[in-house]
Design a protein that fits this description.
The structure holds three protein chains of three kinds. Chain A is mainly alpha-helical. Chain A contains 13 helices and two strands, in the order E-H-H-H-H-H-H-H-H-H-H-H-H-H-E. Chain A has a two-stranded parallel ribbon. Chain B is built from six helices and ten strands; from the N terminus they run βαββαββαββααβαββ. The longest helix of chain B is centred in the N-terminal third of the chain and has 10 residues. Classes of the chains: A mainly alpha, B alpha+beta, C alpha/beta.
Chain lengths: 337, 178, 745
């Protein structure tokens, strides 16, 4: 093809030269979803295994993070909507076919559960912070506790949740896994985008989400056993993630011409440097090596691998969203207008 | 009822009449367009040169990914397989724009997603879509695929055609006659 | 009962039964303030009024549709209309943009300060008329009424032509004649005794072979012809396109002949040679109907395809093969005469060659060739005899261009220059609906002539560049706001079409007929205007042919019976209105006037080293410069692109979309940058620049400065010695990759 032109104007900037709809908000939203899901999976899983005494940070303290970031994520989601006066329509419909729909529902449910989870441990929280000399945090939770005591409805709900915590742990675990997978599925159901249109994406995003959660717990905790365990978990998660990335490209390379072309975005194309250097090297391989060193007994400041993994997870989502928007069945036209 | 359109690339001159007719019929705001024209140049000067034009719009797919991904059902299928958007249900999330392989959808300046409706208000009334009715080269052919006597069924039987992005699995109803 | 179709099945399986079942909203209350009706109105909810499009000269009849608030919402074609067959072209469909354009001239303006100051004050119509009448009287006293020249274009022109005749001046010209089709008309008059007029009576929908020479149907949206070409494609007609550019028509053609520009006559002579010497001509037709066959046969004896190949750079076998295709299809073959034919200065001869080739193939007056058009014999509204001017356009034109059939704008311009000191001086310009600065080549000359006038009046819709040189600007209403004279163009069946106003004129604009009449009355010409409104004139005329304004307002278009045959009947000795009564292969007129009686190939200049030939043409969504600012059409294309062959681009290191400037052989540089389009669709020795872009009036907000204007670069004009046609294709340009100091911006 020598020329491929749109000759009737139509210079719509969200379509040309390639689709550009999901900007700043959506990748961040996906990152937050994955991170929150990961933290809640660990918290509920460890709780169900009866390890809440051994791993207080995992089960209790770290769960302060999900409600805060999910609230932020919901703001990003609504912020990205173009027809804002009608955003409420999202929650008056229930559509299983649409990941955007059940994802929003899932996120809403997880948001409520994630609020209640730490509140059900509020006495433990206060005690933990007092023991660790975190006055401000302790005071904050005392204030919240007083609020719950004062407002009857809060008290009833929190008490009911606390009483049925085991059942809610199972529910939260299930919804968190759904949330983690959803962050990938949202993209993978888009037929039009060859990069996204693969079932691996759900698993890959879940894995990446778990990895970011792992390092968050690793970072927060001051418990040596907890930190070591999570370093180990992350070590294996990264291996799994790298395998899934390999599988993703392998599938693309085996696919029809359009998928091969899509893979080229990462092999010589415009995402080559940013993907391999900024994500794979800096966001996966380097922290992985640091974690090996840590496990071998070298002292590595925990903030370094943790930060790199979190940063890598975010970069990864931005790359996947942008590259996916560029990957298309039809060529990118030149517009004569 | 299964509405479809065929575009005769042997006749289209890429004049853009379909685009203006759509804009005035459907009051599409300036700066936007529900249909558009692609010019494709292949081969080399002077002997193997080939040029053709494709008047494009929503493909009103049998399996429309935009409808599937829509979180509110704003994107929906109406009588005859026409894919439409209800502005009051659309939240402007952009999922359908991402899901469409044909660049058919865009944000209306009011925020909701807008696209070709196959002029269903006219079609219901027994008229052709505005673009079809105006085309000076008669290169747009519209009709019901379930009716073997409709102009579009006939022309698809007689002529060779291709569709765009068949691998996307959308089963489009916009056909391009060779 | 509704069956479950395959689609339903897919939906159900892919969505899951639960999802499908509860995809309805849980609750669906939409507050009334968020609700809005998005369904467009049906035609049954609208009212319509008849119109005739004024966006180009094709004059398609259509309907203007208004909503309940009285706003025009759309325009469609009138199904009775043979120009449009119910389908307007993009420009016609977007015609309402002309009405809605907020850049329009809104009220009369009078210059304040010295000429060229471009400072105007708003005036009432009375003030404007007083100013004009006062100045016209001064000019009359000093130089005579003939010194007041009229330049006009389009459907509003005749109102002013009538005024001029009544006033006693026949110093007028229509740029659209000499810049466009005069050579074609004369070439055909010299051959068949009659010109082609508009729409050209090519029987394209019935043809088996259509030959287009530099005629880009499909890019020029001559509506009926585009439609008929499409019909011809449908029934398998062979299209042969001769063009240095792979035009859209070429894309739909069986044969493309990428001819070297300026060598068409050689190709035509070679085709004649093949058709005559290989005995392929219509012997019966030629013998019965033509004069001078033996002269012609002798004349083309040596013009073999091999001879032509060296000149045209075409393959001689292709020349032969295409000649056979034409002969095979004859008489259902059209060697299309084209329309804008002012190319190289020997245009009448080229058109003669086209006419002769058609005659040899017997296509004139034959099905699939040229039909014999007919129009309605519509009487003119009676008026007292016009005064006889002491001199007219004829006086100053036909001494130079003996076969001129209308005023030549360039000649009038020559007589308007300060250096002209003969007896036929022009000192006042009245310019109606034509942006002479853009439409006439050699802009500097036009500007000098303008600046030498005692009065310049411009009647227009838009603040085009020429309005900046006016003393008085009169804002005209658009075609959707006014009546005009009945459209009475010839066609397969005689027909009339009415343009009626759909809406009241916006702002303080007025219809052309009103402006002409008011001015006439103030000039003391009341006796020529016994009527008050044009409706009286139209109704009277229509009643003479058995219809009425009332009927025409309902139908828009009315057909009448033919009085003559559509094709030349078999066995009839058809009289041709020439000197010999036959088709003149050898033109007795041209011979008598001292021109070549049969076409001769003459070499035209080649581009100097480092220069490329400038070819211009149309984009289908624009007519002339005046549509570029139309909001709808501007949206389709707001700027032009310079087509450059990849080899040239590589040599010069040009990139697609790169901005360049053009400098022509006389050192004239384009005012604005134009973007490069690197394309295989053009010969390496030429560049192509679509016409009308690069507007220089800053008041045209959408059009100003977008792209390059071809006319600016056409400083060299080869006048056709026969007709005065202004050949514009011998201009050459150099591509400048950095902004030259001479450019305006």
């Amino acid at each position: 093809m020598k020329e491929y032109l749109i000759v009737s104007g139509r210079d719509i900037n969200i379509l040309y030269p390639h689709v550009n709809v999901w900007g700043f908000g959506i990748p961040l939203y996906l990152f937050i979803g994955g991170l929150a899901a990961g933290i809640l999976i660990f918290a509920t899983l460890f709780y169900l295994m009866g390890k809440d005494k051994e791993f207080p940070v995992t089960v209790k303290i770290a769960t302060i993070v999900p409600p805060l970031i999910i609230a932020l994520g919901l703001l990003f989601l609504i912020g990205d909507l173009r027809h804002k006066p009608f955003f409420w329509q999202l929650l008056t419909h229930f559509r299983l076919q649409s990941p955007m729909n059940w994802g929003a529902w899932t996120l809403t449910i997880v948001f409520i559960l994630s609020l209640l989870w730490p509140l059900s441990f509020i006495d433990d929280m206060i005690e933990y912070f007092q023991q660790h000399n975190r006055k401000k945090w302790a005071n904050a939770f005392i204030w919240i506790k007083n609020l719950i005591e004062k407002v009857r409805i809060f008290k009833v709900i929190v008490d009911w949740f606390t009483k049925n915590r085991k059942a809610f742990a199972i529910i939260t675990l299930i919804f968190s896994i759904i949330l983690g997978i959803y962050t990938g599925i949202l993209l993978s159901t888009m037929n039009a985008r060859p990069l996204w249109n693969t079932p691996i994406l759900g698993l890959l995003f879940l894995t990446s989400g778990i990895s970011t959660a792992t390092v968050t717990i690793m970072w927060i905790t001051d418990n040596e056993i907890e930190r070591r365990l999570f370093t180990k978990i992350d070590f294996y998660t990264i291996i799994l993630e790298m395998y899934l990335i390999f599988q993703l490209f392998f599938n693309l390379a085996q696919g029809p011409e359009i998928q091969v072309k899509t893979a080229q975005l990462f092999f010589g194309g415009e995402f080559t440097a940013i993907f391999w250097a900024l994500f794979v090297m800096l966001g996966l391989v380097v922290p992985w090596i640091l974690e090996i060193l840590e496990l071998k007994g070298f002292h590595v400041p925990v903030a370094v691998p943790a930060f790199l993994i979190l940063y890598g997870g975010l970069v990864f989502r931005y790359i996947m969203v942008y590259a996916g928007e560029i990957s298309s069945f039809l060529p990118s036209p030149t517009i004569l207008h | 009822m299964r509405y479809a359109m065929a575009v005769d690339t042997r006749k289209c001159v890429g004049c853009g009449d379909c685009v203006v007719a759509c804009q005035t019929e459907n009051n599409v705001p300036l700066g936007y367009a529900r249909d558009w024209i692609v010019e494709i140049v292949k081969g080399s000067y002077p002997n193997t040169l080939k040029v053709h034009f494709e008047s494009r719009r929503c493909h009103h797919c049998d399996d429309p990914p935009c409808v599937r991904v829509c979180p509110t059902g704003a994107s929906h299928i109406v009588e005859g397989g026409i894919v439409k958007v209800t502005p009051e249900e659309c939240i402007g999330c952009g999922a359908c724009i991402e899901a469409c392989p044909y660049e058919a959808r865009y944000f209306h300046p009011d925020g909701y997603v807008d696209k070709c409706t196959f002029c269903d208000h006219r079609v219901k009334n027994g008229q052709d879509p505005a673009c079809v009715e105006v085309c000076p080269t008669h290169c747009l052919i519209f009709g019901d695929l379930d009716d073997p006597e409709s102009p579009v069924s006939k022309v698809l039987k007689e002529r060779e055609y291709y569709t765009l992005a068949p691998d996307a699995g959308t089963h489009p109803n916009l056909f391009f006659l060779k | 009962m509704k069956e479950i179709t395959r689609r339903d099945f897919i939906k159900i399986t892919s969505a899951g039964l639960i999802g499908a079942a509860i995809s309805k909203p849980v609750f669906n209350f939409i507050p009334p303030f968020l609700q809005k009706d998005h369904t467009p109105p049906l035609e049954s909810e609208l009212t319509k009024s008849p119109t005739v499009c004024d966006i180009c000269f094709w004059k398609c009849a259509g309907w203007a549709w208004k909503d309940k608030k009285g706003n025009i919402v759309k325009l469609t074609g009138n199904h009775l209309d043979p120009h449009s067959n119910g389908r307007l072209c993009p420009r016609g469909t977007g015609g309402l943009g002309a009405y809605y354009d907020t850049d329009r001239l809104k009220r009369p303006l009078i210059r304040v300060g010295k000429p060229g100051s471009q400072k105007f004050k708003e005036a009432t119509w009375d003030e404007a008329f007083d100013y004009i009448v006062d100045k016209m009287k001064q000019i009359e006293a000093k130089y005579g009424r003939e010194a007041m020249a009229l330049f006009m274009h389009g459907t509003t022109g005749p109102h002013f032509e009538y005024l001029w005749e009544a006033y006693g001046s026949q110093t007028y010209a229509e740029p659209a004649i000499a810049q466009c089709l005069v050579s074609r008309e004369v070439g055909f008059i010299a051959t068949f005794g009659q010109g082609l007029g508009s729409p050209e009576p090519t029987d394209t929908r019935n043809t088996k072979c259509l030959v287009l020479i530099g005629n880009h149907i499909g890019e020029n949206m001559h509506n009926g012809h585009v439609q008929e070409m499409s019909a011809a494609i449908d029934h398998g007609a062979t299209i042969i396109t001769v063009d240095p550019r792979f035009s859209t028509a070429a894309a739909h053609s069986k044969y493309w002949l990428p001819i070297k520009p300026g060598t068409d006559i050689a190709l035509l002579l070679a085709w004649m040679h093949v058709i005559i010497y290989e005995d392929l001509y219509d012997k019966d037709y030629v013998q019965k109907n033509t004069y001078g066959f033996d002269y012609l046969k002798d004349h083309v004896k040596n013009f073999t395809p091999e001879w032509a190949a060296t000149i045209t750079t075409l393959d001689p076998n292709l020349i032969r093969k295409t000649a056979y295709e034409m002969a095979k299809a004859a008489p259902a073959v059209i060697i299309h005469p084209g329309r804008h034919t002012a190319w190289y200065g020997d245009d009448t001869q080229r058109e003669r060659a086209i006419a002769i080739l058609n005659a040899l193939l017997g296509s004139w007056g034959r099905r699939g060739g040229f039909y014999l058009p007919e129009k309605v014999d519509l009487p003119k509204f009676p008026h007292p005899p016009f005064p006889e001017p002491r001199w007219s356009w004829r006086t100053i034109t036909t001494d130079k261009f003996k076969y001129a059939i209308a005023g030549v704008t360039n000649v009038l311009i020559d007589h308007s220059l300060p250096e002209y000191d003969g007896p036929y001086k022009i000192k006042g310009w009245f310019v109606v609906a034509t942006n002479l600065i853009q439409s006439i080549p050699d802009q500097q000359k036009t500007i000098r002539a303008l600046q030498n006038q005692d009065l310049v009046v411009v009647v227009d819709i838009l603040p085009t560049e020429i309005t900046g040189y006016a003393d008085v600007i009169l804002p005209e209403a658009t075609y959707l706001e006014r009546y005009d004279l009945i459209r009475n163009n010839h066609h397969r069946t005689p027909n009339l079409a009415l343009r009626a106003p759909a809406v009241e004129p916006k702002y303080e604009t007025k219809p052309g007929w009103w402006i002409a009449r008011e001015l006439g009355i103030r000039l003391g010409l009341e006796k020529y205007y016994p009527w008050k409104t044009i409706e009286e004139v139209l109704d009277w005329q229509l009643r003479q042919v058995g219809t009425s304004l009332e009927e025409m307002l309902k139908v828009g278009v009315k057909h009448f019976d033919r009085k003559t045959p559509l094709y030349i009947p078999d066995g009839v000795n058809w009289p041709f209105p020439t000197n010999t009564g036959k088709i003149e292969l050898y033109s007795t007129d041209l011979a008598a006037m001292g021109y070549d009686p049969m076409p001769v190939y003459k070499k035209h200049e080649d581009p100097p080293a480092g220069y490329l030939r400038l070819i211009y043409g149309r984009v289908p969504m624009h007519s002339f410069g005046r549509t570029i600012n139309n909001p709808y059409l501007n949206e389709l294309r707001s700027e032009n692109h310079l087509w450059v062959h990849p080899k040239v681009a590589k040599l010069m290191g040009l990139e697609n979309g790169q901005e360049v400037w053009l400098e022509n052989q006389d050192g004239k540089v384009s005012s604005f940058a134009v973007k490069v389009r690197i394309t295989e669709r053009i010969r390496p020795d030429s560049v192509y620049l679509p016409h009308g872009f690069g507007q220089k009036s800053k008041l045209l907000h959408r059009a100003y400065g977008r792209g390059a204007l071809d006319n600016e670069l056409i400083t060299k004009v080869n006048l056709d010695p026969i007709t005065g046609s202004t050949g514009m294709r011998s201009n050459f340009v150099k591509i400048l990759t950095s902004k030259p100091q001479k450019a305006n911006s």
